[in-house]
């Protein structure tokens, strides 16, 4: 199946696809950029990034 590579950006907090939006909420964490649908999600991520990153990798590992 075709994959668009770098085009997809998932909000790690709510798992919303933010591709193609005007992404004004982003955080650089450990050299990677993370994008968020809202200020609220961004703040949640900043408060506890590991929580959302481990949740996300757990999901894609299944
Ligand atoms: Zn969100």
TrEMBL record:
Q: Extract the GO molecular function terms from the UniProt entry.
A: oxidoreductase activity
Q: Where is the TRASH domain?
A: 11-49
The protein's matches in Gene3D superfamilies, at most eight in alphabetical order, are given as: Ribonucleotide Reductase, subunit A
Instruction: From the UniProt annotation, give the residues forming the signal peptide.
Output: none
Which is one Pfam family of this protein? YHS
- What InterPro entries does the annotation carry? Ferritin-like_SF (IPR009078), RNR-like (IPR012348), TRASH_dom (IPR011017), YHS_dom (IPR007029)
Protein name per UniProt: Small protein often clustered with efflux pumps
Originating species: Methanosarcina horonobensis HB-1 = JCM 15518
Taxonomic lineage? Archaea, Methanobacteriati, Methanobacteriota, Stenosarchaea group, Methanomicrobia
């Amino acid at each position: 199946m075709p994959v668009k590579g770098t085009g997809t950006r998932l909000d790690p907090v709510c798992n919303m696809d933010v591709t193609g939006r005007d992404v004004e909420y982003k955080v650089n964490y450990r050299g990677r950029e993370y994008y968020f649908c809202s200020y609220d999600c961004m703040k949640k991520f900043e408060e506890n990034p590991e929580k959302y990153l481990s949740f996300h990798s757990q999901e894609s590992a299944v």
